[in-house]
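Private note to self, pasted from the team thread so I don't lose it. Backbone tokens:
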């Protein structure tokens, strides 16, 4: 981030605006909405500012800016047509450690005025760091359509119950769970439809009926193949409300950024022959955290039930009587094939698809090669990079032609995706001569020939 986002309390505090035109009046209007004590410095004032001056809404210093005028100010905005004046305002403010914004000149800004969605007391701010204010406004307009005005009333109602909820629940985590349940219940619709009294009564009743949370829950969530746009709505919702995130190596940085900011992060990633945390220990971590009353998001790359060892984890949870839910995801095979332009099935080339893992628990590659080596089917190998030579050799030995096409997809669905195309005879040598990095997926079958024709993701 180029700028640290925050909301600044300026109620009844002195703020200075240098400039008297229409742009200045818009900035003053924003400051007045935040109840600031505004002083405008300018030789002349436009009609709007002149009216506010006559009404006593703002103070006016008639004349040019001079450095002594910043004394006691907590925030300064410069919006004059004179470059030298704007630069002087910036230099004076920076020297005195006062936040300053020079309109339309990001280089002279220590803060940015964002595009604002106002549903007071709910306020959302969007900024591009000065790169594209128009884009920020377009995004704000989109948010305007999906965040009803009633959300402000809902926020105010919640605020009126803060002290009561705090008295009822001594544990901050329990308070958070209570509010998440309330805000996702019919109470929100009551507020949106003007039934404020009914909403208030519903919260009062929920406070009386609520119990302290003694046992948490585990969410076994599939993070998909890497592109955050492929997450399910349910996955995103649970990632946002979990107290703890237990994540694998294959979960991308972009997806981790979507998790709740203040959640505890526990990394349990595995690489071949290098396990940060053994699977048995992961199982017990999930049990322990849930029994402490925490909501745990076990975030796994791809789909939890397709070579993700999700079954092993929920076996332990079930045995320990820990509540859990499973959120499926787009599996790596589906994501990699789609982004590589390789249909896993096709009437002319493949009437079936088989998913297999390229290495077993003991590290060997021991598969039913005879069942796999058939024409008119697609075989997808997970975790097969280290065993690529054995895979290709065995597929040829059991009847597939050496010319059978093979695709190796590296870091599928991410900006770093690369697709390597060869055949069974040449793929091992291609891997040896290329700097191929996991995670990878290997697709074997005639459908690979469609890659050049159908690929839309340029790697």
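Design output:
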């Amino acid at each position: 981030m180029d700028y640290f986002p925050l909301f600044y309390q300026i109620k009844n505090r002195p703020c200075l605006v240098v400039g008297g035109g229409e742009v200045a009046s818009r900035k003053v209007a924003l400051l007045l909405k935040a109840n600031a004590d505004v002083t405008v410095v300018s030789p002349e004032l436009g009609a709007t500012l002149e009216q506010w001056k006559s009404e006593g809404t703002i103070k006016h210093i008639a004349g040019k800016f001079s450095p002594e005028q910043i004394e006691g100010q907590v925030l300064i905005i410069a919006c004059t047509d004179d470059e030298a004046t704007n630069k002087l305002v910036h230099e004076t403010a920076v020297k005195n450690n006062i936040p300053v914004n020079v309109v339309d000149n990001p280089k002279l800004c220590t803060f940015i005025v964002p595009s604002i969605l106002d549903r007071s007391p709910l306020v959302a701010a969007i900024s591009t760091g000065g790169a594209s204010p128009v884009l920020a406004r377009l995004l704000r307009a989109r948010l305007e359509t999906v965040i009803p005005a009633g959300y402000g009333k809902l926020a105010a109602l919640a605020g009126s119950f803060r002290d009561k909820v705090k008295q009822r629940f001594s544990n901050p985590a329990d308070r958070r769970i209570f509010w998440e349940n309330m805000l996702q219940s019919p109470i929100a619709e009551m507020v949106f439809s003007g039934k404020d009294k009914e909403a208030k009564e519903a919260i009062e009743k929920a406070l009386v009926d609520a119990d302290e949370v003694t046992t948490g829950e585990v969410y076994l969530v599939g993070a998909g193949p890497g592109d955050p746009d492929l997450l399910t709505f349910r996955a995103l919702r649970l990632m946002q409300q979990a107290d703890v995130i237990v994540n694998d190596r294959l979960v991308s940085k972009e997806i981790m950024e979507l998790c709740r900011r203040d959640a505890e992060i526990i990394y349990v990633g595995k690489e071949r022959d290098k396990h940060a945390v053994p699977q048995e220990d992961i199982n017990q971590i999930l049990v322990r955290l849930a029994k402490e009353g925490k909501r745990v998001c076990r975030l796994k790359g791809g789909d939890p039930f397709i070579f993700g060892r999700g079954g092993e984890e929920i076996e332990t949870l079930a045995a320990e009587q820990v509540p859990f839910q499973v959120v499926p995801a787009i599996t790596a095979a589906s994501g990699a094939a789609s982004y590589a332009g390789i249909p896993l099935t096709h009437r002319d080339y493949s009437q079936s698809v088989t998913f297999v893992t390229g290495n077993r628990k003991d590290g060997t590659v021991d598969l039913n090669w005879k069942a796999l080596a058939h024409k008119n089917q697609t075989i997808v190998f997970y975790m097969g990079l280290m065993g690529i030579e054995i895979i290709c050799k065995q597929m040829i030995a059991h009847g597939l032609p050496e010319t059978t096409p093979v695709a190796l997809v590296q870091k599928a669905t991410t900006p770093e995706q690369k697709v390597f195309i060869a055949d069974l005879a040449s793929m091992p040598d291609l891997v040896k001569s290329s700097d191929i990095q996991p995670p990878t997926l290997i697709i074997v079958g005639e459908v690979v020939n469609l890659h050049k024709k159908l690929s839309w993701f340029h790697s």
